[in-house]
Amino acid sequence: MSVQRSDSTEVSIHDMVWKGIHLSESAASRIAQLSSNEQLFHLSVRPSGCTGFAYEVKLIKQAEQSDLRFNSRDVAFYVALSAMPMLDGTEIDFVRQGLNSHFVYHNPNVKNMCGCGESFGV
User: Fold this and answer.
1) What does 16-49 look like in DSSP terms, one character per residue?
2) pTM score, two decimals?
3) Residue 112: partners with Cβ closer than 8 Å, 6 or more residues away
4) What is the distance between the alpha carbons of residues 122 and 92, in angstroms, rounded to a whole number?
């Protein structure tokens, strides 16, 4: 897999230098609660909705060889390498609103979102 740079050259996704994924204090706390020695927090994207992609969070037993390991606020988590061109530079927050709680993604790569918030385009 390769990524097209702004100067039109292609670079292998394995050779890219990433800004990373960052966690707010509340997201770090929630991910630490969800993760354990047997469960690892994993973030990726999947095709979805009318604008292209949706965030996908899973608890996994073992990271894939291609997954990238990040540490933010002393919390380790994994991100699918294939998702990095769409997620690089994202800050993840965790918010509670009444009885509901969810992760919120502040993604600088998003160009458009669907009206219901289900999917995003880059």
Assistant:
1) ------EE-HHHHHHHHHH--SS-EEEEEEEEET
2) 0.82
3) 51, 120, 121
4) 17
DSSP line for 70-101: EEETTEEEEE-GGGHHHHTT-EEEEEEETTEE
Where b means 16+ CB within 10 Å and e means fewer, 80-104 reads bbebbbbbbebbbbbeeeeeeeebe
CA 120/CA 77 separation, integer angstroms: 22
How do the pLDDT tens digits run along the chain, 122 residues long? 434 444 445 556 667 788 999 999 999 999 999 997 789 999 999 988 676 888 899 999 999 999 999 999 999 999 999 999 999 999 999 999 999 999 999 999 888 776 555 667 77
Q: What is the dihedral of CA 120, 19, 103, 71, to 10 degrees?
A: 150
